[in-house]
Amino acid sequence: MSSYRQQATGRGRDFNISSIIQTCSGNVQRITHNTAQIQSLLNQLGTSKDSTKLQQNLQQIQHSTNVLAKETNTYLKDLASVPTPLSPVEQRQQKLQKERLMNEFSAALNHFQAVQRQVSQKEKETVARARAGSRLSNEERQKEEQLVSFDNNDDWNQMQSQEEDFEITEQDLELIKERESAIQKLEADILDVNQIFKDLAVMIHDQGEMIEAPMAFDSCDVPEALTRQCCGQQPDNNFTVCKCCLRHSKLLTVLDISAFLSFGRFLLRLLPLMIWMRNVSEIILSAFLRKY
Hints:
Blueprint: H1 3-11, H2 17-42, H3 52-80, H4 88-147, H5 153-231, H6 238-291
Helix pairs in contact: 2-3, 2-4, 3-4, 3-5, 4-5, 4-6, 5-6
């Protein structure tokens, strides 16, 4: 249990936003680090370095990273329950922190799931080759049994050697079953990540709705106040008029930039939803292809 979770348990729902953000940031870094480790182990599958120990290590890191992602998802939901500060400056700071954290988590999660899919695909290919090889060995053995003659000891020794080869194949089949079971667990973890993407998209959407209204109010209120300040006074000369127009020009430039940044943040909020929709489409297409 993390230090944040221990503090939160002792204080009920009185969460500290700094503790939550710090915990989530640390988790995102660990997810990124673990994903790099998984990628390194993935590159060794099917090579001379492939072994049962390597596969177990790969499964352990992958599953622990999946658990870490689900914990981070829970922390982000806790973060959404933290009361909004009264100060506009603190509101904007908290909003930026949440957006940055969610974007970083979304990026790390997307990379992690991509590597998960690579591991699943490579494991399936390995199991398919192993099963094809075991069937081929079994068929060859049955054909040779039909042709073998026990007229001399050489034929008998050859038959004994074939029996030993068949025993090794049985052991290989047990390993294949273990890898198939690991693939099923991996695919279940991938579905968990899909659900996290869905939750993250909802949280980012809700975060945007809560922030857009204050931002719109600030954007409209500032130029109106400035207009009253400039136009409410009678200018004494052309210099005062030009200075007022210059202020308006600068303000409009700032508002244009603010609108552009707001649109960019809106697109970032849509990213997890688009990733989730893509993943669901891939699952449906894969199920359809397997069926037909």
